[in-house]
Structure to design on (143 residues):
């Protein structure tokens, strides 16, 4: 029973929004912020569902685990801003699994038109979005 605890907790936390927003079918592009317990499970589900999975992490050490072990398709090192420019408008859905403060505008720039940001970790501080120039996009942020 104890072995299944992480699957029950972290698993259902990320499975539920993926299923609710119909990301359980191939063809969509999923971004996963963070590769801890929740992020790990989000990548596993995304790959199993046939999604194109991009892991976004500040730790370059996570690249091999994301791409080689878990089967993610792409990796964005969030400490290098040019990576965000190269991946702009490329994701349909982002699941944020980390609770530390970050520049939400950078992450929102990765979403395509009608993209969705799902936050599953409780942020340390209230979220701040400085650039409200998303006129060309219809994005939604769900907590």
């Amino acid at each position: 029973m104890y072995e299944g605890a992480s699957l029950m907790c972290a698993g259902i936390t990320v499975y539920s929004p993926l299923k609710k927003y119909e990301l359980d079918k191939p063809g969509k592009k999923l971004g996963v912020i963070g590769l801890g317990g929740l992020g790990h499970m989000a990548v596993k589900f995304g790959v199993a569902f046939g999604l194109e999975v991009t892991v976004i992490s500040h730790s370059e050490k996570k690249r091999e685990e994301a791409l080689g072990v878990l089967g993610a398709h792409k990796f964005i090192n969030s400490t290098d801003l040019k990576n965000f420019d190269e991946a702009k408008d490329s994701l349909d859905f982002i699941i944020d699994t980390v609770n530390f403060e970050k520049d939400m505008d950078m992450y929102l720039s990765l979403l395509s038109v009608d993209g969705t940001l799902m936050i599953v970790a409780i942020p340390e501080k209230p979220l701040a979005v400085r650039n409200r120039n998303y006129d060309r996009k219809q994005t939604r942020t769900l907590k």
Notes: The two ends are 30 Å apart (CA to CA).
